[in-house]
Amino acid sequence: MNPCQKRLLVTIYLNYNDFNHTLSSMTINISQKLNIPVSTIKWNLRVLRDLGLITAGSKENKKIKVGLTKAGIFIAKRLFEHAII
Q1: Quick one: which of 28, 85, 17, 84 has its CA closest to 54?
Q2: What is the pLDDT of residue 68?
Q3: Which residue, 18, 38, 42, 50, is most buried by CB atoms nearer than 10 A?
Q4: Which of 57, 56, 59, 63 is closest to 12 using CA atoms?
Q5: Higher per-residue confidence, 46 vs 18
Q6: Of 50, 72, 75, which Cα lies nearest the Cα of 84?
């Protein structure tokens, strides 16, 4: 994972793991919060989804809310505890 993906994983772990956000709404929210372009956030969230670290909707199924998987929680917790972001 690149530094942005690590930061996003920890950000979701600390602030957004409530399954109340779609990929689009979370992208905009995190982009404003971290001052990172929307396109960068969206691309990296898709990578995290493809790695199986977050759940998120796709073109085929847009209604899935964003949240961390068990593996995502495990990694985010370790990154946060060891400040590897």
Answers
A1: 17
A2: 94
A3: 42
A4: 56
A5: 46
A6: 75
List the helix and strand counts (H, then E) for the chain. Answer: 4, 2
Residue identified by tokens 């990296």 is: 44
Structure tokens at 5: 């993906």
DSSP annotation of 85 = -
What single-letter amino acid sits at 30? I
Structure tokens at 47: 């990578």
Report pLDDT digits (tens) over 54-72: 998 777 777 788 899 999 9
DSSP summary character for residue 54: E
Query: In 1-85, where do the E strands start and end?
Result: 54-55, 67-68
